[in-house]
Amino acid sequence: DGGITQSPKYLFRKEGQNVTLSCEQNLNHDAMYWYRQDPGQGLRLIYYSQIVNDFQKGDIAEGYSVSREKKESFPLTVTSAQKNPTAFYLCASHLGGGGDADTQYFGPGTRLTVL
Amino acid sequence: AQTVTQSQPEMSVQEAETVTLSCTYDTSESDYYLFWYKQPPSRQMILVIRQEAYKQQNATENRFSVNFQKAAKSFSLKISDSQLGDAAMYFCAYSGGGGADGLTFGKGTHLIIQP
Fold first, then answer.
1. Cβ contact A45–B33 (<8 Å)
2. Nearest Cα to A55, choosing from A19, A30, A78?
3. B100:A105 CB<8 A
4. Closest residue of A to B55, CA-based?
5. How many CA atoms lie within 13 A of A108 on its CB side?
């Protein structure tokens, strides 16, 4: 089955710790994205990557870092510098190239809670 | 910067009736995409419908259709013959720059279906 997987589904972090959220896709999509969702809010863009070894900051990149060493993988690290990391994190991808190929598809999400 | 506004935090409709969800956006671009996504309690983001700005014809997907008014920067979603499974959060989203730069979301409308 082709799709986007995120792990873990739930993640608990102590204050001061860095944690890494996994996002993997087997859709052969070029572009991948990370979004954050807070209660009662829409999604906000954290980072995105259009090709391997390249990525750009989104609207709320402070306190987060990413890497894109493989086309299939786009892990997100939530660092201790992120002041309010408790949120729902969604990964998305799209093929790119125009038309239907520019539609983003989403993974199931990771719920991060800071204890 | 682009903005997306959903002015209805919550809507309620009787099963089998029709409901319209509103969305307005602000952009200076001429080429862009608009989307409606559905987020049920599972929190999985599901694409409902997409519209390319250069297309004058309104997009339709079975019971779902849009009213795209480019000059007014309005993009409403009509759900016909509402079903219990339509109950969810609905998010309007904008994508410019050829679709590669990430989505800008509204804050969502919570749709309740009354049996």
1. no
2. A30
3. no
4. A99
5. 8
